Structure formats: structure tokens, C-alpha cells
User: Fold this.
Amino acid sequence: MPPGMVYDPKLGKMVPDPNLTPEEKRKIEQQRKAQQQAEKAAKRALRKKRKGSCASRLFTIFILLVLIIATPLLIGYVYQLASAPNENFTPLGQIVSVPMDNGTYNMHLHCIGGGSPTVILDADIGAWSIHWEDVQTEIAKFTRVCSYDRAGYGWSDRNPAPRTVQRMATELYLLLQAAEIRPPYVLVGHGASGMTVRAFTQSFQDDVDGIILVDSLSETLLNPYPATLSQQITFYRLAEFFAPWGTVRLVDQVAGYDNWLLQGASLSPELKPVFRAGYYKPAYWETAWAELDGLKSAPSELADIGGLGNRPLVVIIATDRPNNSFPVANFPAPNVSYDAQQVLARMSTDSEIVEAQTAHYVHLQNPTLFVIAVQNVVEQAR
Assistant:
């Protein structure tokens, strides 16, 4: 029974005791207040304990999440570091130190054969010298031929300068000068590099005696900039981010990414390990998306470039291009590509169109047709 309270049978409940003196009432009131304060203090302590317990649980969950995310990344990073030393393949050619406006960079150049003019092979985005190896051996039977790795691919250093068409044409020129590969040249441009060899020809007109455009990309197809290529940039940026953590390597082991990439699916089995070693590196993906991004300025860069005069020109069109299927960008659509390359053929008064019953990598899928086309231009240029 609470102090100072009595039971009233008439009312059927507890009521204040009417017999209490004022002093007793005062003491009882003090006891009641003290009890209320004690109860409040106990409730505050309980709330504080619960709050601390909740914060502790949240912190524990946070640590677990960090461990769940960080552990596979750490394992992948160690896996990447441990595997890399076994993938230092010997360059096919020589490493050339090339002075440029933003520093000196090492670039890989592979030249074989003898004679003039010298054929220069320029690969599409995501490819490098290894993709020319088989046809290069055949071309070397009738003239000198050089393939190279653009900055960031294969055995060449990454260059942080924007990967614009004109920039890459200038870097190619500087490489040839540093390696003392003298003109005249017959330039071969595959895919996006078709625009690079055209820019090279415009800038160094006296050095170029002939051109072969292999399923070439045209600046007319880049304005407005295609959504397909924007998707590719996002995909390549993600690959660049995850590559140091071994994720690209792991996905490749599971899904065989070299068979997704157009430039890997048709590559010879001997060179596929070299290709894989290249795209396991972040620099490969960084360079690929940077080159795609650099295409945004191609329409303005090539707006006033002019034609190719009377130089021998062969335009090889891949007529069996599949439609686009992300993440492999078969851009542009086959019919659009065909029409654009018809326009390219009209840039020279001495041109020929060759239709290859292949997909985009003509020189890997029909090397005989490709080599014959190059030989015809070489003979005309002599």
C-alpha cells in the first residue's frame, strides 16, 4: 500500500489518509517525489543503455559490411599482383623513346621486311600490334611493314594527353621520326584509325603515297555522338576501376572475355595470352574509353580536312557485320557503315572498293584478301 493512503470501502479505492498530520503529509510527499526522480533516472539509464547497444550493433554491421566488400577486393588485388609477373611477354619489336610536347614516352614499334614504300599498320580502338602479326609476315615478303602500339596499349606507355584523332596522328609521326622510319608510307587504318591515317595524310602530305581503309569509321557517323559509344565508355570506365582488384581477370577466367571482344575472338591462339595480359591492366581500359571519348571531337577536327587527291586508295568494307549487342559495340549498323564507306571511297580520284564477306576484323578473318589489297596499293605507289 502506498504511504499516506488508506482503503475506503465505500468508494472501493485507495484515498489519502485523513488522519495524517501536516508533517507526515510533507514527508510522504518528499518520498513520492524522490521515488519519481529515481524512476526517471532509471528510465534514462535504460534508454542510454539501449542507445549504446544500438550504436554498437550498427558499428558491428558496418565493420562486417566493410569486411565483406574489402576481403574479396584484397584477395583480388593480391591475385592481380601475383599473376602479373608471369605475363611480361617479350615485345615483338623495339621500344622507341619518343619526345613529345608533354614529355618523353616509350612506344613499341615492330618493323620487318624490306623495300619501299613502308606500310604502316594502325589498329582499331582496343587493338595493337599483335592483331597485325599474321598479315604483317605476309606483307613483309614484298615490302617493309611496321605495326605499332598506340600510347596505353601493348608495350607502349600511357600518355595522359587527350586521345583525339589529330593527337594520335601526330604521335604516330613522332614515333616514325624517332625510329628513323623514312617515307614514303602506305597507311593502313582499321576502324577508328581510318580517321587517324586521313589526318596524318593531311598533315604530312608529302610522306603518304597510298591508303587502305579497313572497315573504317567516318566522322559523319559521330554527330551526334552515338549512345552506343557512350555506353561503351561507361563499361570501360568500370572495367578500369575493377581491373587493379583482379575482377577483370576473374570475369575472364569464368566467362572468357577475350571471346566477347571482337579483337580477341578472331585472334590466333598463340597471341591470345598476350592480348589477355594487356586487357588485365587498367591502362588498357583507360586508353580504350579515352579514345572513344576523343572521337567526340572528330567531326570538328576533320571538318575541313579535304580529300586524298589522286593517291591510290582501297576501301575495304566488312559486309557481314553483326548488329550491336552490348557489351560488344558493333558500331555502326551494317547498312549505315556501308553507305559511309562509299563516301570515303570518293575522297580519292584513284580508289577501289573491296567487299569482304567478314565481320569487322577483316585482316584476321580473311587475311588473303587484306594482303592482296595492300600489295595492290604498294605496287601502284612504286
About this structure: The longest helix spans residues 22-83. Strands lie at 5-8, 13-16, 94-100, 103-112, 118-122, 145-148, 185-190, 208-214, 309-318, 348-356. The chain has a mean pLDDT of 84.
